[in-house]
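cache lookup: miss for this entity combination. No prior model stored, computing from scratch. Input as submitted by user K.M.:
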Amino acid sequence: MHRVFKAGIAILAAAVMTTGALAADWTPPGPIKLIIAFRAGGGVDTQARLIAEELEGRLGWKFIPEQVTGKGGMNMASALKDMPNDGTAIGMGVTETFGYNMAAAPKSGMTPADFTGLTTTAGFQMGVVSPASKGWKSFDDLVAAAKGGEDIRFGVMSPRLADLAYLLGKAQGVEFNIVSVKGGKAVLDGVNAGDLDVGFMAGIQGKGVAAGDLVNLASALSEPLVQTPDAPTFADLGVDFNSDGYFVFVGPAGMPAEARDALAAAIAEIVADENSKAGGLIKKAFGGSATISGDDLTVLMNNDYKDAGALLDAASE
Amino acid sequence: MGTLDYIWSGVLAVFLGPELFSLFGLPVSVTLVMIFAGFFLGIAVGATPGLAGPIAMAISLPILISVFGYTPDALLPVMGFLIGVMKGATIGGAVPAILFNTPGTPDAYMTTLDGYPMTRKGQARKALRVAHLSSVSGDTFSDIVLIVCAPFLALLVEGYLDLPEKTALLILSLSFIAAVVGGSPAKGLISTGLGLLVAFVGTGEDFYPRLSLGGPVLAQGFPLATAILGVLIVGAVFKELADIWREKRISGELTTIEDSGDQKLGFREIRRLMPHIGRSAVIGTAIGALPGIGSTLAATIGYTVGKARYQKTKSADDPDFGKGAPEGIAATEAANSSVSGANLIPVLSLGIPGNAAAVFLILAADSIGGFNPGPSVFRFTRDAVNPELVIAFGLFTAMFIANILNWTIGGVFMRSMGIMTRIPKQILLPTVLLLTLTAIYVQETRMDAIWFTLGFGVLGYAMRAVAMSPLPFVIAFILGGKLEESARQAFAATGGDPYFLFTHPIAALFMALSVGVIVLTARNSRAKASGATT
């Protein structure tokens, strides 16, 4: 016991010392707490851990990943908000948390201004996915089944997606039984276990679709999916809204520019490198990295927050 | 890959994992060393009154993770260590129950009934031998069932249990525990209700936290460790301290006991114990396989069934159950130990913990990543390797290594463990309290967590003072979030049918059983009470 503890201290000390030697302009003043907003095994979690692992290897920075899940990333955001803004506490989630979710929950008292956007890593490849065992080849088959009287269980992992699923049903003249679960991995598990008939997946369906176990019936984006370009987009299906969004790293508000830029640059470099584990995963699941950082990211987060009202209004009609 | 390939890869992952050092030219993997280390820690904490496997797991987990990191390579060493602790603590747990009449864990309570009388008769070491034999036999039996049944049971469970059924099964588990473990069904239900109430603080689907009184302190809810360790350990420490204080006011010294009679366990005696061990092992395994139902219930049923059987077959001069019968120890220990292996069936197939030890295994898997207990674990993919399945078989291998240690070194170690229990309680209990609070602060790193823990400790003390088992509280706290989640999902999936628990046949059956078990236990305990007064 004692020896294990000593070994732990030794490793920590070694990590701190190598940090000083390797990083040039900015070094974190201590181990970095990495707060992950979604459940273990999902897209956010896998990316966050792989990126942290790679940063530890390349720069010698020490990360302490921690899961603060729930409420569509809002729990992560509220945990992160009051942490030190010197770069020793960052969070990974999705842009949706800072846009729709904060707009929909004025009681939380949080706005994008309470955070410093570091960088996005990749855009969603948000598909409407069903298991191959259902036998649906296209979105029309799903609508036909629903019109034929079959109850369709539609898995969603956030309130914004629940709104979108509702609007999709409305546009197509059918009603889905919308089931909220925690995270994209839970949608995948639910679909695999037969608890759900169809659901939103933001990229983790890639492997299953390639293997023929899952089918991308539609793209919930403004663009077609990289993997299944023939699937109709939400605009094709008569929905004026889409689930465009990114996986994003953030820090508390007022982070010094050198810390923000150093973190953003280090992360962006890794996700763009397809030979790294993180970059490889992003290439496979999301068709490549999409890194937006600095002022561009601030503008993006603010616009998402401002535009959220329209979707909220449409879904509550 | 075929099934055998998966099993073999799992075994290799344990033995040929990252190498720590080599012994006579043979590489010794980190995982192997960690299983040994965990095993010795487990047996030591199990034998210390007031300490148990879960607390050792709680303290070691953050240290292990800071040493091994978050890579998939860390999974087997860390979980191997935890499995070692779990296994070691299983047999160690009987030691304080037998020697000092203080069960370290609730499931060892029934062991005190015959173990302590044997100690007072000077048969302590014999009692320890009986406990060791029964415990390890039950445990090994249950592991075999786990390994043979977990893969298909996982699929079977998924095939039959849709969302409404899962919700109903959770309700059944809770009412079962409330009825059977709680002392009386009413107390059990109160304990369960309190657990659910606490679980619902700060959680939920809304964007703002409920029941948080508007402040930030409760907004994230109560951390798992504060509620569980607070009620189970801090509560027990408070109770023990109060008892010592009272004892000291009334009397003075502890009496010392000399050994008397034959301490060895002969072949004929083993043959007499075997039916009790076998029966209890089956009972324990069956109960362990149900999600969310723990070892205390198994121990209780094993003891009760064993007692009924024993009354019919014993010869006139054998001691009764409760008066120092070795069969009583055998029936209890085989039942509570055989739960642990089977308990991992719901853990691996559904992610539902059946006991506190399983909670820490899930916690470890969650924090490290790369292994997500659930239906995806047992997918035997032929074209691509399913790494989670390899890990699962690696865990099974670790369990068997720990079992071999239990059979061999465990027996020797446990009998010599009596020395550790000579630490005076007035020194031991504050140490336990300090360790617990430190463990919690290490995990939560905020003072609120310490206040929560002390608050739950007071609750645990109060529950013990009114003879209410804290166990339903703990299980309800663990399952509360899951119950709400699956109920919401079932409600949505059935298109907003408010009667979803009653319109599906299997769910309706579970609900009927939930009500039935409460009514029956209430009637039985009332009959017993009136029988006792007349």
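stored under new cache key. The CA atoms of residues 95 and 246 of chain A lie 6 Å apart.
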